[in-house]
Amino acid sequence: EIVLTQSPATLSLSPGERATLSCRASQSVSSYLAWYQQKPGQAPRLLIYDASNRATGIPARFSGSGSGTDFTLTISSLEPEDFAVYYCQQRSNWPHSFGQGTKLEIK
Amino acid sequence: EVQLVQSGAEVKKPGESLKISCKGSGYSFTGYWIGWVRQMPGKGLEWMGIIYPGDSDTRYSPSFQGQVTISADKSITTAYLQWSSLKASDTAIYYCARSNGGFDYWGQGTLVTVSS
Q1: CA A64 to CA B95: how far, in whole Å?
Q2: Mean pLDDT score of chain B, rounded to an integer?
Q3: Which residues, given as ranges, of chain A have pLDDT below 50?
Q4: pLDDT reported for residue A36
Q5: Is B47 part of the contact surface with chain A (CB cutoff 8 Å)?
Q6: Rounded Cα distance, A63 and B7, in Å
Q7: What is the distance between the alpha carbons of residues B51 and B54, in angstroms, rounded to a whole number?
C-alpha cells in the first residue's frame, strides 16, 4: 500500500501570501496524484488531478507540480476562502490512498 | 448536471446491519468508477473501496476488506455501502464520489452514528 505523507501538518499564513504544500509518496505514483480542498461541513472538492491539471472551475492561483514521489500544491496569493484542509490522493496503485491532510490556517 | 445524492443520516446500535446509497444522475453511470470514502469525526479522509458499475468490478482497501460490502445496481444508477454488523468505531461520515482522474463529483455525505 502506498503511503502519502503531507507536510506541514499545519501552515499559518496571511491573505495575499503564497502557500506551498507538500505530498510525498512512499513509492512512485508517476503523475497519478490529485489534490482536494475541504472546508468544515462540506464534501471535499477536487482542485488538481494528474499532478498538474486544474479541475473544472478551479482558479488559476491553484497549481500543482511534481512526479514520481514528490508533489507540490501552490496557491500563488491566498484569498480568505482558501483557508481549509488540503489532501493529496494517489491513483497509481490500489488502494487509492489519501494523505493525512494539511490544515491551512489564517495567521 | 452531474449529481450524486446520498441517503440520509442513520442512527444504529452496535451489531445492527446497514446499507446506505448513492444515486448518480446526469452522466453515464456505467462508465465511471464510484468510490466510498470515510471521514471519522475530526479526522482525515480514508479511501474504503471502489466499484465499476459497468461490470461490478470492485476493489477494497485492506483496511476495509471484509468489514464492508460495496455494490451497485446499474438499472437504478445507485451504488451501495453496507455493513452486516456495525461497531461504535463505524461512526463517521461516508462519502461517495465519482472517479475521473481524481474524485471529481462527491455526494453530500451520509452521517452514520453507531451507539448503544
Answers
A1: 25
A2: 98
A3: none
A4: 98
A5: yes
A6: 34
A7: 9
Mutate to test the interface with A, among B3, B39, B47 (most CBs of A within 10 A): B47
Burial class (CB in 10 A: 0-12, 13-18, 19+), B89: exposed
Name the grid cell of A107: 495567521
Q: Which residues of A touch B (CB under 8 A)?
A: 1, 34-36, 38, 43-46, 48-50, 53, 55-56, 85, 87, 89, 91, 94-101
On whether the CB atoms of residues B37 and B93 are closer than 8 A, the answer is: no
Residue B37: strand, helix, or coil = strand
The model's confidence at residue B38, banded by pLDDT at 50, 70 and 90, is very high
How many percent of chain B have pLDDT more than 70?
Answer: 100
Which among B59, B104, B107 has CB closest to A46? Answer: B104
